Amino acid sequence: MPPHGDDAQEAGLMRSMLFVPGDSPRKFEKASEGKADALIIDLEDSVVTDKKPEARGLTLAMLKGSRGPHQLYVRVNALDTGVTLTDLAAVMPGKPDGIVLPKSQGGDDVRHVATWLEALEAAAGIAVGTTRIVCVATETAGSIFGLGSYEGCSPRLAGLMWGAEDLSASLGATEKASGGVFHSPYRLARDLCLMAAAAAEVAPIDTVYTDIDNLAGLEQETRAARRDGFSAKALIHPKHVDVVNAAFAPTDAERTWAEKVIAAFASNPNSGTLRLDGQMIDKPHLRAAKKILGQP
Asked: Where is substrate annotated to bind (predicted)?
């Protein structure tokens, strides 16, 4: 069976990524008590401009505190703000597991940040190359055209997250969704980000769910994301964590199917295709079965 609950955190799986304001140690402490697989300490949207210097110091203190099972990421400010390097220099001594880069335009942005990280890792005594990068890859209209450039851009790239909030402003749109369903420009951004992540062989991460008290809607959206191939979801409230973790867990029927597929190929190692329960299966089915069970 694949790891679940606390075991999933210990195995390094990433299903839930909870944003925490970089200027709020209290919210960080509360988030640390939950079961999010990753906490994203935010220096961007959740921190007003005049508090960013203070937030950098507080974020470093959070990183240097007692580490739980969570992976710790820091969302820095976007490259076009001119303060990305200032953010990185301030937090890298805390040895974050990864950096979240907002408003990324493509693979060149990843390479740019990777170059900075190499020097900052060396200065902080961190093994060079170990700090991962997750990009928020759909926040501007232009970024959509860069989605194909992430493949092979850097071994640091760990995930691509799609986002709708800033994209709405970039498009000049008056509404993102109605009846809980995204309008077509946002569905396009979502689907292209999913495909770009698959092509780059990194985690596709679904956007935040903003209707905080609608847990049924959150579950429905997360199950749809998992159905389509997303492996994680970004979150903005601690109460969403358990719902999202449960929605990404394989069902009993999926586990049973996966175990049967793996057993069938194990018994026929020289076969490329097999018949199972009246259906033809091949190596893509085997890869899907291993993914369900958390196997390499």
From this structure: 75, 139
